[in-house]
Each structure stands twice: as C-alpha cells, then as structure tokens.
Fold:
Amino acid sequence: MSSEVHFITKNFDKYDPMSIDAYLAIGGFSALKKAVQMDGEDIAAVISAAKIKGRGGAAYDMGRKWSQARAVKGDHKLTICNADEGEPCTFKDREIIRRDPFNLIEGMIIGAYTVQAQDGYIYLREEYRHLRARLKNAIRQAEEKGFLGDNILGIPNFNFHIHLYSGAGAYVCGEGTALIRSIEGKAGRPRMKPPFIKVSGAFALPTCVNNVESFAIVPHLLCDRENVYMSHGSGESIGTKLVSVGGNVRRPGVYEIPFGTTVREIIYGLAQGIPDGHALRLIQFGGASGKITDDRILDVPYTYDDLKAAGVTVGSGAILVIDERTSVLDFLRMTQAFFSHESCGQCTPCREGNAHQKILLEKLARGEATPEDIALMKKIGEIMERASLCGLGETAQAALLSAMQVFPDTFAVGGAC
Structure:
C-alpha cells in the first residue's frame, strides 16, 4: 500500500504563491511570530528533538548545526539557502520554490533569528532562472510587510536582508565552499577546510548553509502543536521526507513520504511502476553521486539506517529507476561522462581520476579491457574516495564501485552485460 503525506507540502496549491496576503490568510508567518518569542537555542533544540538531518545530502544534524552557528561570535553573520539542486534526478526543491516560496522565506528568517545572522543569500541554480521572478516577488512583498529588513516585527536590532544570487550551471557549486566562492564573484571551486564555513564562510564572515527543504520544514515544525511530524517514522528517521522519483516509471514526480515507507511502495505505488512491462535493472539513490543496487532493495524501508545497511544512502532524496533497456555498463558510462565534464579540475585525484575512469569504461565497452584494467578501475575509484578535495571527487565513483559489488558480471572481461 503506497502512502503519501502532506506536512512539508501542506501549503502546496492552497494559496497563490505570488501573493503574501494569500499566504498570511492560511497562517503564514505564524511560525516566525512564535519563533521570536523563543530563545534561538530552544529553536535549535526543537529541530534536534525531531532528529532532522540536513536535506541537501550530507544528513548532518540540523539542530546541532544551528546551535554551533549560533555559538560562533561575530558582529556580522550570514545564512545561505542552497537552491543549486544540481544533483541529477533531484527536483524536490524546485517544487517548494514554485509552489510555496513564502514558506521558504519564512524558514530563512527563522534561521537568521536562531543563528543571529543579518544577511541571507539564496543561491539559485541557473536552470531555475524561470523561478527567479517568483523569489524576487516573495522577497519584495516580505520586505513591504515588515518581515524582512530592519527591526523585523518591531523588534529592535532584528535585522535581516535576503539577496538572490544566480549560479552559472556548475554542478560543483552545490558544494558549500564552491557555492560561497561563486557568491563572492570568484570561480566556483571548493576550498580546503578548516576554516569551516560556520567560522569563515562567504566574505570571510561566519556563515550557516542549509538546503531549501531544510529551511522549508522549520515553520511547519514550530507550528506542529499536535506533533504530526513526530508521529511518522521511528528511531533516527522520524517524520517525513520529500523524494524525487524519475527514470523509467509511469508517474515521475515529487512525493512526501513518511520515513519507513518501502522502496517498493514508492516505485510501484506512488510512481506506478515501470511502463510496458519492462523489468527493473537498477535503482540509484541520491543522484548521480549515489550508489546503485538492484531489486533486492525493494522491500527495504526508506530510512537513513535501513538504506545504509542495504548499501545505499538517502543523499539528495533522488530515486532513479532504470529498466532492462539500459545496460549497467551504458549507465555507468553516462554517469562517468557527466562527472568528467563537471569536475572543476582543481585537484588531481578528481581531475585525472575521472578522465582515466572514462577511458577504462570505454575500453570495457569495446571488449578490450583486461583484468588489470578492472583492478586499476577499482583502485582509482578508491583513491578518489579518499583523496579528493570535495564531495564531487569523493562520490563520483559511488555508482561504479557499488556496481562492481552488485553487478560483478558487468566487469567480467569479455562478457559485460
């Protein structure tokens, strides 16, 4: 039995997303008014109690992140909303921006109040430029109503301004330090840490970066008097999650599921299964940087712990379904071509590793690979995981290395399938 809930998405299609008055009419900014009556540390504690992990892919404890950011001293602090969403098959944040932009703005304001930031940036991916006007409208109307600007809600020194910044389409700018460099007007390339972003981020100021979904959940959580969110899921995976389902399914889309829903319920229930009677070949979790598996995953509950035990991760929330019409090798070649193109070239393991993996996979596809080539492919992938500067290089080989375990016949020399 497939199940879909509406907690994060409860405002979808309930108001005109171009009108702040329509948002106010359904209770908009009630959470902000409640938040300013609380201590920032108490807001962070509410988020931690709900065990919310960042929804951008890293799955870091969000309440802890806000508490740590709040503790950093600084006369001028920043928050950043990462709306780059460049991970293939990930499009949940787009739906939040498109259908509930004022909720995102409200979540950012609450975040700023919590960590004591004065300026915020929304980093919008280039491919979402059609949503730029929607966000600019939401920011402008929030300023006109006194929810943004100086002395918000009449509170002295509660000042917060949101700036909209558009990226140029680089996948690597989904990584926090590369995103920050792009905002600063520099080439979008990652930097070494420390210093950590919370201490020295954009313009060398203390900065807290969160994903769109992470910000969007906060207003709903603060107004959840009946503990609806906490009634879903269990263990370390409490509440609900937005997932983007794409590929060879009848009904691709964004679905809000309670943690614990099985992968089968998501693919064959909500997404209505694979069309034309084709068989499942593989599933990739968390975008192009995610691991792949086969139908053995279908009855595994969608939770952080259960997916990890099954060899994959939640990641960005993407679920890509590939049927028998695409071979595992062709899928890996496509993924490798993507990362070879998107590597910023700054660090040697990623720059050279991706280039050589592409060559080796093409050699395998031609039937010319040797056992030594397969061993080298595995060695390069493991070096990239350990030695790359940022998450792009560290995870670019996730699909390949997991395929070597799940689909060993693909790498049998002379018999790729």
